[in-house]
Amino acid sequence: IGTGALVVFLAVTGIMAVSMCLNPPNGMNMAIKPENVEATAPFNSPGLKKIGPNEYRATIISYTFGYKPNTITVPKGATVHFQITSKDVVHGFMIPGTTTNLMLIPGHVAEYTQTFNEPGEFLFLCHEYCGIGHQAMYGRVIVK
Ligand code: CUA
To answer: How many domains does the chain have?
Structure first.
């Protein structure tokens, strides 16, 4: 029974992985070459862009050890569509106190939408151990 259960488990996992195109989670369905990140749209002009009434797209590049840009400022109530990639190793992007929690895998674009209803400063940080400067990898969302 144990062996049978293992075979079924591996078969289900394998079939699901192939049928879901082996994509990592977090909506990472856009492929990008890590070595060409800064020459590839939209990451050739990272930053915050207004795309609607109090709605923004934040295009961010993560690298060892930081984010470009590392500060974005939005009005209270803003909805921010994050699209983030890594140009070197696996990093993280987490905003404590919100539901934003992304793994940034080189070669993929992580996407998430977060609305900021309260004014204040929100730390975002790397929560994937990425090397000797990992603890210094952070930035801020300033909500005014
Ligand atoms: Cu980047 Cu830890």
So the answer is: 1
- Say whether the ipTM exceeds 0.85: yes
pLDDT exceeds 80 at position 10: yes
Residue 56, domain member (yes or no): yes
Mean pLDDT of 64-69: 97
Averaged over 24-34, what is the pLDDT? 63
Residue 103 belongs to a domain with what CATH number? Answer: 2.60.40.420
Q: How far is the CA of 52 from the centre of ligand 1 (A)?
A: 31
Q: Is 87 in the pocket of ligand 1 (CB under 6 A)?
A: no
Question: Closest ligand 1 atom, CA of 91?
Answer: 1
Structural domain span for residue 118: 26-143
Whether 74 contacts 116, CB under 8 Å:
yes
Cβ of 134 less than 6 Å from ligand 1: yes
